[in-house]
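Predict structure. Chain length: 433.
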Amino acid sequence: MLSITSQYLARYRQLTVGDRSGTVLPVTGAQRRFVLVRALDPSGRPDVVPMFFAFPHGAVDLERLRSAARLLAARHTALRSRPAVVRGTPVLRVGEPDVRVTMPAPAPGERPADTLRRALAAWEPQGPPLRLFLARDHENRGEDLLAVALDHAVCDGRSLTRIVEELGTAYTEAADAHALALAPEETEAELDAYRRAVLLQLAAEERADSPEAAAYWAHRLRAVRAQAPGRRPERVPDGTLPSGAAQARLPAHEDGVPFPGLLDACRSAARSLYGPGHVVPLGYPWGGRPSGAAPVIGCFLNTVVFPLVTGDDTDPEETADVWWDDLERADAPFDTVVAAARSAGSGWTGNLDGLLTVDDDSRRPPLVLAGAEGRETDVDGRPVRGPFAVSVTQGAQIRLRMVWDRATLDDDTALTAFDALTRALRPEERTPH
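Prediction complete.
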């Protein structure tokens, strides 16, 4: 029997027989997941990845920013492609560079963060994958906020650093009209590099999509149940933002917190949220570009599922051992893993109760636009998929954040879980908001 990846490749090849345009591209397993999430959303809304930067008031020229964003999109196949489903087969359709760069008008008394939150909430599903929103603080002449937002199906965490760096470079080049047009051979070369990277990724996933891996994940996830029962609010209070957030700065460990330690900390949070006796699915990104592929912008990081057993505390060595076993099968595509769990009798549909992302604060530089440095910041209160998400940034300090869906978890319950999370990582302070 053909694996899910093999079946997908066969359908894609059949779909593109006789197509010489080269503008219909296959998608990676990671992209298939986001296309599926989008298809299952009643509004058709994709997962959106925003980055927020605070600039001195008036420092960003909107027209120059538009030119820079168009140049950035022209340089990268993924940024001028849109996810689509053709005869039941997920693909990317490559088009011309199409970027929306807007300055949404603030409502009376609205702060820039509120304006951006409202603009992102109004994201139209049928539109370009890269959009920029600039909110000026006209009233107080304080910092302006810039949101650089992308459809998750065309980028992953490793793409964001390059996007930030190249947007700054393109902003400088935007002052030169000759730099705004790419030679056809440049565009074609990048398209070939992107196509090759995706095909190499799919070849790696096809090798990983084995009966042995399916049996392993069926055993690991057979008891998983998404959206474990917890203390849910009766309703979200009027005027309350869709999500809550809390953050802490913790003393740095000498070599950083080992990933299994972060998993155990998330287990403590899940036990606080749902009580003992549950197996809660936590997802985290893992992987990279396949060997031999160019470092193209795109979506290549697989989502690996770790079942958090909310019983007694687990031996850290036991967590580390099973995590290392997981990593040996981490290339198995997400849809294969879900199918394997369901074949073992789990009713799990692929929804995740929690997400964990880990970053190094030295990886992503500030966004610099013609000498004006944008400080990366957070805009809380946006809708989140799933009950809770944890992000950890390691560096001179550990920056810990947790956000939660207020339609699923009340604030008191979530903050108690955040306390459990921070205790597991030796906290110094907490700032809820």
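Summary: Residues 184-208 form the longest helix (25 residues).
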